[in-house]
User: Which sequence fits this backbone?
């Protein structure tokens, strides 16, 4: 029996056990996921194989990056067959070649964070996005409250943001997206909102009615819908995530996936942290379930094989 | 040297050590504070003397309620010489005369409704009155509801459920009304104040707040709102500035007019630990009650709590 989740135009059939990992391999947890133009899927993991690549049916293709990524955090796929990986534990962003992970550009100094809340890049940077001209936005992150804008070749152009709850201030800048008109969307996680800026950091608007928005994915089009992974804080109160919300370009809710409480059922989530959508509209959700398990289930030992990636096939 | 805090039309001179408690007495911490028509100040606290009354100079007048209030949480005062006390630990609301005589009781002391049942009460938090004298109760920690009662305590209706959508709540912590009948709800962990009509129809929300906790409005048309905001206590943001604890004063559209507090939590006169209950007297002077004992370990898990920490301060309006 197919399990269908979501509402309206955004309904999905859950594909359980989609990823076919080589024997003995584990994701541990998948922080982020990306899809290339051939609908191959790149899982940025916190296990021994940081980048594991699958075809759209979940067949294993290859892995790379072993030993090079201390703590996977964000993925953004470039238009030129490149992948931008953000490592918050290593304090760096790398633009890599898809087939083998060859590093084409590196921003930040691996292992050398800027001082905490200094505003200088980076202290636990989280994600990247690209402007229409190919400029690179980096959200930064856990140890800063900043968005940095770099030239396509990695020169720092400008930065904006400071700690706080006012417009243009941030309380854990967790993910970032851009659209084809150049608008920049920032998941301001602990302010429970997404802030929208122009390409130079001028505040435009914000979306509310969210709970700890953490993962953001938007297609690079005009007025795209936005896929938002939201975190919870515990299992006491219903309807506060973890969940995935799909909103229109004004932030209006279109569809929502997830049960009222955190859980391990196919229809529920533990920590939806990274999202991506392929050419057919199929959705991949990566979860930081190892990290969040003890907070959500303090009295239960963590199971050996927690789900950390799931595919949701769009029902048209 | 006078210390002046705030901005614009809402500047205040800090009056340190305002409350003169009897020797050996302690507030422990203050859940809420209210002011009567004579500008006497009612301090609903979590010490041995749940209600302590002071004149505007901070002279002790009397106390009452000993043994009757397990955990002070909210105060609402109206000019008819009554005081509404909400006790979240006891799961009840009491309307009292100003000498503490109980005139009306809602809820059954010590008997909570089932958790998240929507039935009154499970750790109710605060009250407000409609223009007709109907009683709104925010409820609270163990429910996600606002209840509306007739003036004599009959349940008329309830609204709200857990969640983040308009009309849903994530810790309904304080409630106020204005003379036009609008209802303002501090939806603490959704980081917003929601505004409803008198029957619970969602109207709008105010954002750009951090854990809004205490709410005070004068009972007029288009009043400003005084908002106590709690600070960041998660491991990921505990050291981040500009998130409270602080007091923000906003206009009737939720636009910031003035803000009091330091970038970080603290014990200096200009900083806060947990501004939880607020009241303003006839001269515009502001009183802020703080749950400083409760908040201390959340900010300073490795530091023992000092024997005395401030839990009430007066801010005299500068005009």
Assistant:
């Amino acid at each position: 029996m197919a399990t269908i989740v979501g509402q309206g135009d955004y309904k999905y059939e859950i594909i359980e056990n989609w990823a076919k990992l080589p024997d003995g391999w584990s994701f541990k947890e998948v922080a982020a996921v990306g899809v290339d133009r051939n609908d191959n899927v790149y899982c940025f993991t916190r296990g021994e194989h940081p980048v594991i690549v699958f075809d759209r049916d979940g067949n294993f293709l290859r892995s790379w990056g072993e030993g090079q990524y201390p703590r996977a955090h964000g993925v953004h796929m470039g238009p030129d067959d490149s992948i931008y990986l953000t490592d918050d534990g290593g304090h760096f962003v790398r633009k890599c070649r898809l087939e083998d992970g060859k590093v084409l550009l590196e921003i930040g100094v691996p292992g050398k964070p800027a001082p905490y809340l200094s505003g200088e890049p980076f202290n636990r940077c989280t994600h990247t996005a690209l402007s229409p001209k190919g400029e690179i936005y980096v959200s930064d992150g856990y140890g800063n409250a900043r968005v940095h804008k770099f030239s396509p070749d990695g020169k720092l152009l400008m930065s904006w943001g400071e700690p706080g709850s006012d417009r243009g201030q941030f309380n854990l800048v967790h993910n970032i997206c851009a659209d084809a008109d150049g608008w920049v969307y920032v998941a301001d996680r602990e302010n429970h909102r997404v802030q929208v800026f122009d390409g130079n950091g001028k505040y435009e608007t914000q979306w509310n009615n969210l709970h700890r928005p953490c993962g953001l994915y938007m297609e690079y089009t005009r007025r795209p819908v936005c896929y938002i992974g939201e975190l919870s804080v515990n299992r006491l109160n219903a309807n506060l995530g973890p969940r995935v919300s799909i909103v229109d370009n004004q932030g209006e809710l279109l569809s929502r996936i997830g049960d009222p409480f955190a859980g391990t059922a196919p229809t529920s989530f533990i920590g939806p942290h990274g999202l991506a959508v392929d050419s057919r509209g199929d959705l991949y959700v990566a979860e930081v379930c190892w990290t969040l398990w003890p907070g959500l289930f303090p009295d239960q030992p963590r199971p050996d094989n927690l789900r950390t990636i799931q595919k949701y096939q769009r029902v048209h | 040297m006078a210390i002046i805090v705030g901005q614009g039309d809402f500047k205040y001179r800090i009056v340190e050590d305002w409350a003169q408690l009897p020797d050996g007495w302690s507030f422990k911490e203050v859940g809420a504070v209210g002011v009567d028509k004579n500008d006497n100040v009612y301090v609903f606290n979590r010490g041995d003397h749940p209600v302590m009354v002071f004149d505007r100079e901070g002279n002790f007048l009397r106390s009452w309620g000993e043994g009757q209030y397990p955990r002070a949480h909210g105060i609402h005062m109206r000019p008819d010489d009554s005081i509404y006390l909400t006790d979240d630990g006891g799961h009840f609301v009491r309307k009292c005369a100003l000498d503490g005589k109980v005139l009306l009781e809602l809820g059954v002391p010590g008997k909570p409704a089932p958790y998240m049942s929507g039935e009154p009460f499970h750790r109710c938090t605060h009250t407000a009155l409609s223009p007709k004298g109907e009683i709104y109760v925010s409820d609270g920690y163990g429910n996600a509801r606002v209840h509306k009662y007739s003036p004599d305590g009959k349940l008329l209706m309830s609204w709200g459920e857990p969640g983040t959508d308009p009309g849903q709540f994530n810790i309904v912590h304080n409630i106020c009304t204005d003379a036009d009948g609008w209802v303002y709800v501090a939806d603490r962990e959704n980081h917003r104040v929601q505004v409803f009509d008198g029957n619970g129809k969602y109207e709008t929300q105010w954002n750009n707040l951090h854990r809004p906790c205490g709410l005070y409005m004068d009972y007029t048309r288009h009043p400003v709102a005084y908002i106590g905001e709690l600070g960041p206590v998660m491991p990921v943001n505990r050291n981040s500035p500009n998130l409270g604890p602080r007091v923000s004063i906003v206009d009737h559209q939720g636009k910031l007019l003035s803000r009091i507090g330091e970038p970080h939590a603290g014990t200096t006169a200009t900083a806060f630990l947990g501004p939880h209950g607020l009241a303003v007297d006839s001269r515009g002077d502001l009183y802020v009650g703080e749950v400083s004992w409760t908040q201390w370990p959340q900010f300073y898990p490795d530091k023992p709590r000092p024997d005395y920490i401030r839990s009430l301060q007066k801010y005299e309006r500068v005009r």
About this structure: The helical segments of chain B are 292-299. The mean pLDDT of chain B is 97.
